[in-house]
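Weekly modeling sync, notes
Attendees: AB, CL, MP (scribe)

Item 1: holo prediction request
CL wants a bound-state model with zinc ion before deciding which constructs to order. AB pointed out that an apo prediction alone won't tell us much about the pocket. Agreed to run with the ligand included and paste results into these notes for async review.

Input as submitted:
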Amino acid sequence: MKKILFFLLLNLTFTTMAETIPLNKLIGQFNEKTDPNFVALDSTILPVNKPGMYLQKEVADQLTKAYQDFKIAHPNIPFIVVSATRNYAYQNSIWQNKWDRLFKKLKNEPKTAQEILKYSSMPGTSRHHWGTDVDITSVSSDYFTQDPKGKILFQWLQTNMSKYGFCQSFNHGRKGGYQPEEWHWSYQPIAKKFLAQYKKILASNEKSIINQLTFAGYNKIKLRDLIEEYVFDVNPDCY
Ligand SMILES: [Zn+2]
């Protein structure tokens, strides 16, 4: 009996451990290039627009399948990974550049943050930290709504990406959060765990996340409210 109980407890411990995502992974404070769960896209057949991009292995495998099937259907239409994992330091440099440029013009911290947040995340709150999310071919809505090649690509992505586990995080018809992004696709089986963990930590111990976020303007904006809006207001298919 004692033995059975011991194994039950052991099993429970491992299950719980496996489900817990460390905080540093949740907010991108790690190096994807040296993480054993990540793979360099340069070592896959996926076309990329720059070297040195990484994804979680399972995500890269599933994306490769999608890419291969897309190429069978549309050999002459570009399907290129233009962004994959971005860690905190990388996202912080994006944020800082936009902040410096926009704050000069707007001279108001909340307005500056709001303007950046149309398309870019606060460091520590991006789905790109998770190694589950990619941007495909273009980061311009015009490409997907005006360009004939972009229209075909978007139509295919909408119809087929769920077969490989991907959802369009920032779709049309949400109440808040980022503008629609036709290019941004998320590997739901893993990303949903990150999202659930983010919610859990923000509810139970928000300081543990918030204290880590010290990007430009962090103390002049309603950080908690913005996290709730921009991290949680995503396509229900991604939950
Ligand atoms: Zn993206």
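Recorded for review: Strands lie at 38-40, 54-56, 81-83, 133-136, 166-168, 184-187.
Action items: CL to compare against the apo run; MP to circulate these notes.
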